[in-house]
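Notes continue from the previous slide.

Worked example: a multi-chain complex. Inputs as given:
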Amino acid sequence: MKGQPRSRRGEGRISERWSVKMAMAAAAVKFWGSSRGLGRAGLPLLRLLGARGLARSHPHRWQRQQHFSSLDDKPQFPGASAEFIDKLEFIQPNVISGIPIYRVMDRQGQIINPSEDPHLPQEKVLKFYKSMTLLNTMDRILYESQRQGRISFYMTNYGEEGTHVGSAAALDNTDLVFGQYREAGVLIYRDYPLELFMAQCYGNVSDLGKGRQMPVHYGCRERHFVTISSPLATQIPQAVGAAYAAKRANANRVVICYFGEGAASEGDAHAGFNFAATLECPIIFFCRNNGYAISTPTSEQYRGDGIAARGPGYGILSIRVDGNDVFAVYNATKEARRRAVAENQPFLIEAMTYRIGHHSTSDDSSAYRSVDEVNYWDKQDHPISRLRHYLQSRGWWDDEQEKAWRKQSRKKVMEAFEQAERKLKPNPNLIFSDVYQEMPAQLRKQQESLARHLQTYGEHYPLDHFEK
Amino acid sequence: KDRVFNTPLCEQGIVGFGIGIAVTGATAIAEIQFADYIFPAFDQIVNEAAKYRYRSGDLFNCGSLTIRSPWGCVGHGALYHSQSPEAFFAHCPGIKVVVPRSPFQAKGLLLSCIEDKNPCIFFEPKILYRAAVILCLFSSFFQVHVIREVATMAQEKLGVSCEVIDLRTIIPWDVDTVCKTVTCQAPLSMGFSRREYWKCFLQAFSSHVRHCFLSNSQCSKLWLNRGR
């Protein structure tokens, strides 16, 4: 039956392995005089004992080993570490004044609290700016190309560039990235060539994914960016598993997992959060709360205080940040990364932002939101303009450089675009490979059957566009 | 405890987590307690695990994932401890689905699944988890008559054919005949009471031996050792 207790073998092994440390801890209990485990004095003591796993020991694990004193009127339940209360009171969810939003710059790009300024060197901040603007330029051109029938589909990242670049910059290049579909800026920051973005959108021979998926389903093994898939939130428990493997390998790597506030409603998100906390995985959950899941506004997505408020429910350290403030995103991700690796625990960052563009080329958002609303975000609170103000106030950027860079970035994108258009599509044989690691006989037969079919009826197919 | 561990109770999480481990190249063996409960993981299996290699153009894969799950009816399991859901997965290219017919097959096939470079689902027929059935009985003296009766009963009631060996001589006993049967992977039951012989034999064929203790003055009492 579901819910039957699983083998207790693991627990037996814990008590064997930890028996020496437990004896020391038990001695400490006598010294500190607490009857319910070590209490608050316990954690520093356990850290002294030097076992990282032990120091991170959840109070429940310790409680299972303790003596039960019948003279104590304290709760003995294994399921919670809490005191009794004799007043009937429901805990009020706090949605009116929710978790505060961490920011470093105001909407005009001025640093609010100088001690929070990451003091990044000019070169790095310029890279932030150029990444965000290059992404913006590429988005415009590829969105247009879909409208012109050159590619089948596209999703823009307007308004969310800050979340991508700020977080990507705070990671090591080898940290594994699991994305949703609106994280192209992470790849841009990791210097994924424009040629490969285009190749994937056009599905041409240069596409690393061999032309099999819809546009914007990028992937890159070299840059540790796991290939995007369409189903929402499926990457969340996978990212947790990858983080667990990284922990076991002592890789000093963190895994970052991006998703939207809509995907956070999926069961996979709940599964991922719970597993990450329980199994102590070095993972950063990065939620882009952009206000809409296609046409579903957040008021119809959840009733609680966003996604950040869910973290503590799982035992996860959580923060809410201004996603349009690239430094806030950077600071939060940097600190989360440092601690996730050092302490083997998950972190949840909810980056508040706004989806300025449509959900995709298949969407017309004027059907469910006002143009005024969109304009506000585009004009008054945009990550790119806020960073530009910061750069300009430092004298690191000016209008001339802006003009020159716009021209240059557009030229780069257009060149890659035109080249991608001219390339052939992959060989039709690639329809059949990689289903399994080895091609089974029945697939080979299908492959041969298609080849014969094309030989006979090839003139009815646009074979000239495909590699032979 | 970091290699074999409990997870929170969530099949979609268990399989998703296993996929993630496999993506990094490590071997993952995920257990779904009963095949009846595999459905929450259907999306992860069909949309993710099966398609990982293909959709990424072989940049990524989860080939080192094996999902194992008890399968099939045992008689009392009713709706939710008896299902055989392999057909749901049979239409899904990209995964392998395996169902062994016997414990011996199960061992080899499970190892194959684990080593296979594609995600595999290994359904373990629960009926095979039963107590080991005697396939080879050997004895001497009057116990032979008892054991012959047991062999007949096993044939009638359990549908198992047993080989009965009458040792005749206790010392020296016919090791070759017994070994020949045992190396045909028949688990065996020992029918004489000298413990020394039993111990030596145990050492040599420990994985196959079932215990059978007889005294010279009593009827046989069959002790079945649960197979590992």
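Summary box: Residues 175-227 of chain B form one domain. Confidence is low (pLDDT under 50) at residues 183-198, 203-228 of chain B.
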